[in-house]
Description:
Strand content: 15-25%
Distance between the termini: 18 Å
Structural class: alpha+beta
Amino acid sequence: xxxxxxxxxxxxxxxxxxxxxxxxxxxxxxxxxxxxxxxxxxxxxxxxxxxxxxxxxxxxxxxxxxxxxxxxxxxxxxxxxxxxxxxxxxxxxxxxxx
Length: 98
């Protein structure tokens, strides 16, 4: 019986932010450098929008906060090499579990 190919591991990042956040601007720039080494998709969540109140209550003093595949990854500053290593470890774990 032919083996059914497993889908390639994926990374979905969520960045919790707001529009007056210079650290968030810096983090976005660093994440673009990370993306050159590890592929991912990213969604931004503006914690100041009423529908995101839960995230505001949790992260109001800590943005940017970044989750990878719905798990906490980092906050405040993006160290490019550390972030690449963390994301690669998540991908490797996905490969091992499939």
